[in-house]
Structure formats: C-alpha cells, structure tokens
Design brief:
This protein is mainly alpha-helical and about 270 residues long. Helices cover about 55% and strands about 5% of the residues. It is built from 13 helices and three strands.
Amino acid sequence: MSRDLISAFKEYLTINKNLSKNSISAYINDIEQFYYSSKKNILNRDSSDVISFLSAFKNSRTLNRKLASVNAFYSFAKDLEFANVDINLPSAKIPQTLPHFLEHTTIMKATGDIDIKSWLDTRDRALILFLYATGVRVSEAINCEIDDIEDGWLRVRYAKGEKQRVVPIAKTAQLALTLYLNERDDNSSHIFINYKKRKLSRVSIFKITKKYLNVSPHVLRHSYATALIQGGADLRVVQELLGHSSLLTTQIYTHIQKPHLKETINRYHPLSD
C-alpha cells in the first residue's frame, strides 16, 4: 500500500497540481528518501519520525524542501483517508540571502566588447541581451522558437510548471536578435543554436555567460528583475514577467525596493527637507 500510495502521489502532482517534471522528481525523491529512513510503515509514522528524518540535514533550504514534500504527502494521504496522521510541521527559518545581480553598465560593456567575427559571436551577444531583456529561465531560452517572437513580444511556452506567459523584448535585444538571425543559414526553428545548427544546450549557455560575464545565466534573470524594481516596477508586475506562481518567490527582491523607495521619499516628500 505504501509504495502504491507514493505512485498515486506522483500522479496527483502530475495531473492535479500540474507541476514540472523537475519538481515532481524532487518531491518523489524526498518521499522515497523518507520512506527508506525507517522500517516503520510510512502511514503509521508521526511528527517525531519526521523530525528524526530531517535531523540529518543541516542546510535550511534542503531541510525545508524535504519538509514541504513530507507535509504535502501526508496532506494528500489524509485527503484520501489513507492516514489519520496530521503532520504539518513549520519550516525552518532561512537566513536571508540576496540574489547576485549585475549592473546595467557591466552587462552593456561586456556585450559591447564582444569581437564579432562570425555568426556565433552575434549569437553570443544576442543571447546575453535576450536573457537580460526578458528574464527568462535557461530552460525556457533553449526551447524558444523563432515563431515565438511577434511584434516585439516573446511567448514563453516552455515555462516552469507548464505555464505560458508573454513578455516584451527590449529594443536593444530585438536589434541584436535580428542581426544574429539574419546571419544564420539554416532551417532550425529554435532561436539559439550551436555550430552544428542544433538547439543550444544548458551547458553551452552557461559557458557563454561565464566567458563574457563570469556569472551563471541565472544571474541575468536576477539582473532583469533588479533593473525593473530599481526602475519603479510593481512587485506583482515583476512576478508576472518572471513567471513566479507565488508573490512570495518574487519578494526576494524587496531588499532592492526598500532603499529605492526611501530615496524616492527623500527626494519628493515635503517633510523630507
């Protein structure tokens, strides 16, 4: 029954919750790990068993992810009346870490310094500006197709959790993309391809951003969000553009918003004189 329930839980995450394959895999791996952590039937375990399991993990983020998986599993089991155990332990407090981002001038200087000798160089420049101008995830960027761009808008079809969104592309990035696409001589439908004219891989994108900016491509996503917040964008708008399902995820950028708001008050409020 326990193994069957884990399989049913996986089906629930796939169909009812519509989670991405990576998220489902993470949930199931956590539950499998918890399942083998004790000889006691998983349906007969209680909070002390969960705490014993979690005590092996020192990293707060890892601990909270596994706790979330366990809580979700028992909530699912209780709803189906397979278990009467009410396990819903609170998350551990995680020290606030600020996302690493690059200043606008740093990104523009790096892309401006790219020595254009072939269409691959125009691709590298277009890719960096594309990531910075749209804030898309790497997994989304590698699957974007040429037809996904229309009138300066990008349709992100391969989003996390299989959700779709539409984001505008800044003009500088549009120009770089046009230059790059005009120099290509192939029939690939994907925007970013390698020298073999095949879809660019996640590893290749990492190597490109590392080469020119010495950062991972995800830093450009943080840089995109930071630039929007510093420019005065509403947090909910940023949430929509980034494709976050919850505003709580986007709130990691509030550390940027606070000093910006203080500067605005000091500049415009009559009592700040």
